[in-house]
From TrEMBL, chain A:
Biological process annotations from GO: cell division
Organism: Candidatus Zambryskibacteria bacterium RIFOXYC1_FULL_39_10
Protein known as: Cell division ATP-binding protein FtsE
Protein family per UniProt: Belongs to the ABC transporter superfamily.
The protein's role, per its UniProt record: Part of the ABC transporter FtsEX involved in cellular division.
Gene: ftsE
Classification via NCBIfam families: FtsE
GO cellular component labels: plasma membrane
From TrEMBL, chain B:
Species per Swiss-Prot/TrEMBL record: Candidatus Zambryskibacteria bacterium RIFOXYC1_FULL_39_10
UniProt entry keywords in alphabetical sequence: Cell cycle, Cell division, Cell membrane, Membrane, Transmembrane, Transmembrane helix
Residue ranges annotated for the FtsX extracellular domain, each copy included: 63-150
Protein topology in the membrane: Multi-pass membrane protein
Transmembrane segments: 21-52, 188-215, 236-263, 283-306
InterPro entries hit by this protein: ABC3_permease_C, FtsX, FtsX_ECD
Full protein name: Cell division protein FtsX
Domain ABC3 transporter permease C-terminal: 191-311
Length: 226, 312
């Protein structure tokens, strides 16, 4: 489904973010990418979202090299990928409802579908009572749940979550991980980056460990080992 | 189907733009205030240009030729001369003021000046000659008319000269000088207005760029969820248009009391030009220019500013 084939990213001779990274993610997998800060986890996800281009190698999504696509084609790929970030990245001037509706509007969904799906997906993340609140009126955990709702509303093929629990307390971290596991159980591929040992050990799925821009371990049912 | 989808997108973009404008509160207010300053400068440039044009026109209309006739000339000869002048193609009108009328006017003008009136009484006879006031169709034609009267040997039925003096040649220097001053003022006014308009447009462009700089993170998020460039840009352009519309109407409302307040002053200072009357009689034209400029500046600056943060 996703193939990283010898992907390198060099900003200059002394700054190598990724060094010949290769791995494959299959459908319905839950893959955690771990490693210390600066290991290249976020850069890897940026490559998948076509936010950044590799210096060498290629990133394929369903047999298509993402970085050969036009802007319009990249938009279509992004609609199949749900993204969740550490800093939530919600639209501050839109309500919870509008934030989620925006992702559906961008995908050209009709009004009737938006009106029925948005409350439904908010119920899934247990935020049905915050539908008309603005992001500034929510706690960190609630914001992250809105971000997850926005990521899954278009029923994407894959969810990528870049340090989604980085700004959360243990209780909210547990909730978010449970939601991601549930999404995976329902058939969506999940790629999670984190440096939280507890999170990785509790998931008990595939773990790719990175250090200095290289993949140093790839365990089928791994733990956080560094 | 395609058309329906386009309409839906347009409606969503317009709604998002409106909410963006409304919910941004202080940011929108700051943009509107800066835009009002710019549009006031543009509006003032319209008024300055009108003042200069109308003053110039009034001044041109003030130019005429007075032909002073000798005191001994008889009315029949004068009327014959009047008819002759009227037959010239360049002449618009000729007004005859008889000796008696000239004296009456003189007395009226000096009714509070006892010494002059006394001196006139002592003379016993009417010392004033009749006059012919000539207006040409075009200001440039006065010289031709004056030359015609000067060269033509105009005599009475008894063969005596009846023209005493033609005042055009005395006034010409002053008129030309004044015309040159007004022309320079017009050019200077135009250059200054243009410079001011450009500077204020630049300030507004930068203010709108700053408001969009604040939203650069939002723009990247919108693109990350798969929104197309136009779908991201649209609401910002709508917000820019709304800033222009609001600012345009506020500027027009502000012009109402200001022009009313300045109306009397301008009327006394600029030969009958009342800025308030001008504002009222040209209201829709000024409204179109001011609001149109606001909308254009708002839309174009938003379009350009968002482009900077759009990737792909």
């Amino acid at each position: 489904m996703i193939i990283f084939d010898n992907v390198s990213k060099k900003y200059n001779e002394d700054c190598i973010a990724l060094d010949k990274v290769s791995f494959v993610v299959n459908p319905n997998e839950f893959v955690s990418i771990v490693g210390p800060s600066g290991a290249g986890k976020t850069t890897l996800l940026k490559m998948l979202l076509a936010e950044d281009k590799p210096t060498e190698g290629k990133v394929s999504f369903f047999d298509t090299d993402i970085h050969t696509l036009s802007g319009e084609e990249i938009n279509l790929v992004r609609r199949k990928i749900g993204a969740v970030f550490q800093d939530f990245r919600l639209l501050p001037n839109k309500t919870v409802y509008e934030n989620i509706a925006f992702a559906m509007e961008a995908a050209g969904r009709p009004d009737e579908e938006i009106e029925s799906d948005v409350p439904h997906v908010l119920e899934l993340v247990d935020l049905g009572n915050k539908i008309w609140n603005f992001p500034s009126e929510l706690s960190g955990g609630e914001k992250q749940r809105v971000a997850i709702a926005r990521a899954i509303v278009n029923q994407p093929d894959i969810i990528i979550a870049d340090e989604p629990t980085g700004n959360l307390d243990p209780a909210n971290t547990y909730d978010i991980v449970q939601i991601l596991k549930k999404i995976n159980d329902l058939g969506t591929t999940v790629i999670l980056t984190t440096h939280n040992k507890g999170v990785i050990d509790s998931i008990g799925r595939r773990v790719i460990t990175m250090q200095d821009g290289r993949v140093i371990r790839d365990d089928i049912a791994g733990k956080y080992i560094l | 189907m395609e058309q329906q989808l386009f309409k839906t997108k347009l409606r969503r973009v317009a709604k998002a733009g409106f909410f963006n404008f409304w919910r941004s509160g202080y940011v929108s207010l700051a943009s509107v205030l800066v835009m009002v300053v710019t549009l006031s400068v543009i509006g003032s440039a319209i008024f300055v240009s009108a003042i200069l044009n109308i003053t110039m026109e009034e001044l041109r209309n003030k130019v005429d030729i007075n032909v002073y006739l000798v005191t001994t000339s008889v009315e029949n000869d004068i009327l014959a001369l009047k008819t002759k002048i009227e037959s010239l193609p360049e002449v618009l009108s000729v007004e005859y003021t008889s000796r008696e009328k000239a004296l009456e006017n003189f007395r009226l003008r000096h009714e509070n000046d006892q010494i002059t009136i006394q001196a006139l009484e002592e003379l016993g006879d009417n010392p004033l000659g009749a006059t012919l006031n000539i207006k040409a169709k075009e200001p440039s034609q006065y010289e031709g008319i004056a030359n015609f009267l000067n060269e033509e040997n105009i005599l009475s039925s008894e063969g005596e000269k009846i023209i005493d003096k033609i005042n055009y040649f005395e006034n010409r220097v002053a008129i030309d000088k004044l015309s040159r001053i007004i022309n320079s003022a017009e050019r200077l006014g135009l250059v200054l207005s243009l410079a001011l308009v450009l500077v204020s447009i630049m300030i507004t462009l930068n203010t709108i760029r700053l408001t969009i700089f604040i939203s650069r993170e939002e723009i990247s998020v919108m693109q990350l969820v798969g929104a197309s460039k136009n779908y991201v840009r649209g609401p910002f352009v709508v917000t820019g248009v709304l800033v222009g519309l609001f600012s345009g109407f506020i500027t027009m409302i502000l012009f109402l009391p200001i022009s009313y307040w300045l109306g009397g002053t301008t009327e006394n200072f600029f030969i009958g030009f009342n800025i308030f009357s001008y504002y009222l009689s040209n209201f829709f034209q000024i409204l179109f220019i001011v609001v149109g400029s606001g909308v254009a500046i708002g839309a174009v600056s938003s379009f350009l500013a968002v482009r900077k943060y759009l990737k792909l």
